[in-house]
Design a protein that fits this description.
globular, binds zinc ion, 5 domains, 20 helices, 729 residues, binds adenosine-5'-diphosphate, 6-stranded parallel beta sheet
């Protein structure tokens, strides 16, 4: 054994808590600067990509170590603040560090591909090319190309604009040594920044507060829809760029639209790097690499963008901070908003959380002065808040779930030249297919919940597990032909509205109708400012600016009023306020019509009379009385298997392991069947931990989790721990 040898302690993407020891792939001594480099290692019969997390001295007591196969990077990819924050995340979520690090890397890097190039390419004529130019045939494509290059070195995207199909003649010039390709910085071309509107007093006050901070400070920008929160973000980002720093902006899954990116690009005048699920693996890895190199100055992305490296961080923004898409529901159960708060603290930069309907957690933090509250209480510019009208439909005749009053309101809005949004948060034709003779209804065999009817009732689909089949021609129980779709989904609304309003376009916008990411943009573009009807699910509740909308109709929210989940009320209130906020954004006054069988429901009454904040106050009181977040801290152990026994056995054993570790403030409930006890053929069971003190909760988890991993039953079920679950399903 050589005296200089040391051991690489490597985190591998495996569901095991420990790191693994290997000898370095070469004989060079390795120092602490190797921490954060990726290596390829043999693991059983496989090869894995891992990250060095520690350098340890060789221990003569330990037998033969395997040797790592190869270094994948000359420098650490994960280092400094990012690596430290990821270590924190692994501890906080009680997840294996190797899995956390793998989650933080884009897929291409996780597979071991090299950090991609992020520069752009340009072409120039060589000496030989300059000499050969006069000899090239006049007006031939190579000649014209060479003439362009004689005038200037040209970027490939400039060539794209200049000369269609330039690559073929370029290849022939290159083959003769007449041209050469150069790597050039990608960020050298940027549009000129466009100034925004002059900010109003509240916006200026918000900006001044952010400017006045030095180091970490969390802000809650609490501003009604259309109050100009995005303008505040843009100004804060411009300030950050002026200080020579990078800005990271998180937006919800459905909020990252081409519209939004275009607005950022044109206003900031620097390249804006996007990171979202519409990009392929290469594009995502390029954004990550550009951030790592510090070339990307503004990164706008969805949940996973919380993991981009920020070597020159200056600001972090989280738009619509209440949005549920920030919580990852499988794999590592992280919350992107909460994680960037931790990063912001480590990076010593301000973190700006914005929403028209802040989460109760954030409002509570603002109330307790943990966040600084910035209010935008009025709509910006000329826009007025919409008028809300509740329509009581008890005992009224409905057509496809719509009352005559609603249809009249739609007609009036269209006649006045406006656009109408009909919001129903349920896609498909009808939520149930029912036998009128015997009461049988179509259910998912894998989830035991009703199947949604699609295509006018001809097909059935499970919205939980994706199971699909054709509707039966007759009732399987009584052979009756009287099978009827019950209730109303967006498809059925479209059918009715298209029948009733033949003179205007009727567009349905939900996940069923807009598979392609740009389809929605195209539809909206075609509609332009003409009168028309949009029917949509929550996809339409945010993101797209719909300036010609004058009426928003909300139907089918009644079932949401009586959900058992502790967060259901908050979700419904947020959705209603966001949807209502779509009406009357620019100049034109807006109206909201809410059709319900429960006009006296306290949630609706409070929301309409007092707005979101009155609702939130009331809801916080109820959460406090019931001992739910933000007044308690939760962790949920979930287990599932093909049979109901093993998950129950495992969670009983887990409970026995946890009990001695739990201080008095930590309560255990369960194991119990999950509120949805069967899903996709799996029997689901859960054990809930609840504590008034976060420290006690984590102490219990830290003490018990290694033992729970080692339980014999742990191998017989699929299980996971979710710290701070956002729902209990
Ligand atoms: P939010 O993000 O709060 O929904 P936006 O920043 O998108 O609001 O602003 C809503 C609309 O009002 C946009 O069209 C924006 O250009 C405009 N706007 C924002 N601030 C001002 C202002 N100070 N004066 C005039 N118009 C403004
Ligand atoms: Zn029947
Ligand atoms: Zn199902």
């Amino acid at each position: 054994m050589s005296a200089a040898a040391s051991v690489l302690r490597i985190a591998l993407p495996l569901p095991l808590p420990q790191a693994f020891d290997y000898l370095p792939p070469d004989t060079d001594t390795v120092g602490a600067d190797a921490v954060g480099r990726r290596v390829r290692v043999p693991f059983g019969p496989r090869e894995l990509v891992g990250t060095v997390v520690e350098i340890a001295p060789t221990d003569p007591q330990v037998g033969d170590l395997r040797t790592a196969l190869a270094w994948l990077d000359p420098e650490p990819l994960l280092q400094g603040e990012l690596l430290a924050s990821l270590r924190w995340l692994a501890r906080y979520t009680q997840a294996p560090l190797g899995e956390v690090l793998a989650t933080a890397l884009p897929a291409a890097l996780r597979r071991g591909e090299p950090l991609p190039d992020t520069h752009a390419w340009a072409w120039q004529l060589t000496e030989a090319g300059i000499e050969a130019l006069p000899g090239l045939r006049k007006n031939s494509r190579p000649r014209r190309l060479a003439e362009h290059l004689h005038a200037a070195v040209l970027h490939e995207d400039a060539l794209d604009r200049l000369l269609d199909g330039w690559r073929t003649p370029m290849r022939s010039l290159a083959a003769r040594g007449h041209v050469e390709r150069l790597a050039v910085p990608a960020s050298s071309q940027a549009p000129l920044p466009h100034p925004g509107p002059a900010l109003n007093a509240e916006q200026r006050a918000a900006i001044e507060s952010v400017r006045a901070t030095d180091g970490f400070a969390p802000f809650l920008l609490d501003g009604v829809t259309g109050s100009g929160k995005t303008e505040v973000y843009l100004q804060a980002i411009a300030d950050c760029l002026a200080r020579g720093k990078q800005a990271l902006v998180l937006v919800p899954e459905i909020g990252l639209t081409p519209q939004l990116l275009a607005r950022f690009r044109s206003r900031l005048g620097v390249p804006v790097h996007a990171s979202h699920s519409g990009l392929n693996d290469n594009e995502r890895a390029r954004t990550w690499a550009a951030a790592w190199r510090g070339e990307a100055r503004v990164i706008v992305g969805t949940r996973s963008a919380a993991f981009v490296p920020l070597p020159d961080a200056g600001l972090i923004v989280v738009d619509e901070e209440h949005d549920a898409s920030y919580k990852q529901q499988d794999g590592i159960h992280y919350h992107a908003r909460d994680f960037v708060l931790v990063r912001g603290k480590a990076l010593e930069v301000p973190v700006l959380l914005g929403s028209a309907t802040p989460s109760l957690e954030s409002l509570y933090n603002a109330r307790n002065d943990r966040y600084r509250l910035l209010r935008l209480s009025r709509r910006a510019g000329e826009a007025k808040p919409p008028q809300v009208r509740v329509i009581d439909v008890r005992k009224r005749a409905l057509q496809a779930g719509l009352s005559q009053q609603v249809l009249d309101a739609v007609r009036a809005a269209l006649d006045a030249g406006g656009q109408v949004l009909v919001f129903r948060n349920r896609r498909g034709y009808a939520p149930v297919l029912l036998c009128h003779d015997c009461g049988w209804s179509a259910r998912c065999p894998r989830c035991d919940t009703p199947l949604t009817a699609h295509n006018g009732g001809r097909r059935l689909q499970c919205h939980h597990c994706g199971y699909r089949k054709l509707s039966p021609p007759a009732c399987p129980d009584c052979a009756s032909l009287a099978l009827q779709p019950q209730g109303v989904g967006t498809e059925r609304l479209e059918e009715l509205l298209a029948e009733q309003f033949t003179d205007v376009p009727v567009l349905r916008i939900d996940r069923g109708s807009t598979r392609r990411k740009d389809a929605l943009e195209k539809h909206l573009h075609e509609l332009a400012d003409r009168p028309g009807i949009l029917i949509g699910t929550q996809m339409l509740a945010k993101g797209h600016d719909l300036p010609h909308l004058t009426l928003v109709v909300v139907v089918g929210i009644d079932e949401g009023l009586f959900s058992a989940d502790f967060r259901a009320g908050e979700r419904l209130a947020q959705l209603l306020v966001q949807v209502a906020g779509r009406a009357g954004r620019a100049g034109k006054p807006g109206e909201v019509v809410l059709q319900t069988h429960h006009p006296e429901h306290p949630l609706l009454q409070t929301l309409i009379r007092g707005g979101y904040h009155a609702f939130a106050e009331q809801e916080l009181e109820q959460r406090e009385a019931a001992g739910f977040p933000p007044f308690a801290h939760l962790a949920l152990l979930r287990a599932e298997a093909k049979h109901a026994g093993p998950p129950m056995d495992f969670l009983r054993a887990a409970r026995d392991t946890l009990l001695p570790a739990c201080a008095e403030q930590v309560e255990l409930s369960g194991p119990l069947p999950a509120p949805m006890p069967l899903r996709a053929g799996m029997h689901r069971t859960q054990l809930l931990l609840s504590a008034s003190s976060r420290r006690e909760l984590h102490a219990a988890l830290e003490a018990a989790m290694p033992k729970i991993h080692a339980l014999p039953d742990a191998r017989k079920t699929r299980w996971s721990l979710d710290v701070d679950p956002i729902d209990l399903y």
